[in-house]
Amino acid sequence: GAVVSQHPSWVICKSGTSVKIECRSLDFQATTMFWYRQFPKQSLMLMATSNEGSKATYEQGVEKDKFLINHASLTLSTLTVTSAHPEDSSFYICSARGGYRKRAPQHFGDGTRLSIL
Amino acid sequence: KNEVEQSPQNLTAQEGEFITINCSYSVGISALHWLQQHPGGGIVSLFMLSSGKKKHGRLIATINIQEKHSSLHITASHPRDSAVYICAVVNYGGSQGNLIFGKGTKLSVKP
After folding, report:
1. In this complex, which of A36, A107, A111 lies closest to B45 when CB atoms are compared?
2. What gap in Å lies between CA A51 and CA B111, rounded to an integer?
3. A with B: how many residue pairs have Cβ under 8 Å apart?
4. Is A43 close to B102, i.e. CB distance below 8 A?
5. Are residues A14 and A117 in contact, defined by beta-carbon separation less than 8 angstroms?
6. I need a surface site. Which of A35, A65, A115, B30 has the fewest CB within 10 A?
7. Overall average pLDDT of the B24-43 stretch
8. pLDDT at B38
9. Strand order in the sheet with A4-7
């Protein structure tokens, strides 16, 4: 089946640090990638949607200047948490979809657990 | 009220038991996913369905579009089935086809 690689799997860093998370589709071209966030005991929540070569579309309440998303190629999207603070500690996970059909399957990375001290 | 509701939130079963997890949704959808999330956080897609029923090994997923309800069944449950099971819908009204997730059902199967 389709494989999505997400890296790193966990990060612990000091407040004020910027953290970059990578999401790669290994065996298909991901025209659309989604970034989700999950706080403890909560549902996964969509942060932003990125289409290759376009600016990301952010959900209401998600600061685009804080969570920088780049989807420069059909196999790679990155999420950079700039000047991270303890409240940004969460589980971040990407999913990738080939093609533009809304019903095309999404394939998930293994997630990144981010802890800001 | 959440757009996607799952029940139960937690479920403990003995090995071999038949398990049912339910999902109700209130938005128009084009498809519904059942996902499995293991303790480390990684997510695996079990099923994507838009009508009827699908079966894969010991797992069966059904959906009733008119009633806006789906169920995931596990036959002959095993301790390795212990995980969080998440129902997620492809929002028909969403411009990009993003998923809306339920809160998940934490399943523990005891040997």
Report:
1. A107
2. 45
3. 72
4. yes
5. yes
6. A65
7. 89
8. 86
9. A4-7, A19-25, A76-81, A67-73
